[in-house]
Design a protein that fits this description.
mainly alpha
Length: 109
């Protein structure tokens, strides 16, 4: 079936009205980062109080179709231990590279 090449003003207005009446999905669509943040306290509880490892937690989340890397789960545990709030990836990499450069000189001696 060929695609329609021309539309009437009435068709456009009807399409516009129907699109505007679609429900707001933003409250029901949670990003991966927000989902992980919402699971933070439960992940910490599993690791601290119930003895779960990062691999155990990842496996449990995978079975529920919440696929996160071991690294992202580990970062939650590390952040809690250090008491620091998570930095963005770019800031962390930049500060780590400066930090590691200074440390590597000390460790080589």
């Amino acid at each position: 079936m060929a695609t329609q090449q021309f539309f009437t003003q009435q068709q456009i207005e009807e399409a516009k009205t129907r699109l505007e009446n679609l429900p707001d999905l933003s409250p029901t669509r949670i990003t991966r980062n927000d989902a992980l943040e919402n699971l933070r306290s439960t992940i910490l509880m599993l690791a601290k109080e119930k003895g779960y490892t990062v691999k155990d937690i990842k496996s449990a989340l995978d079975s529920m179709k919440f696929v996160f890397s071991e690294r992202s789960i580990s970062e939650i545990l590390k952040e809690d231990e250090s008491g620091k709030k998570r930095q963005s990836g770019k800031l962390r990499r930049k500060s780590d590279s400066v930090k590691n450069t200074g440390e590597s000189v000390q460790h080589q001696n």
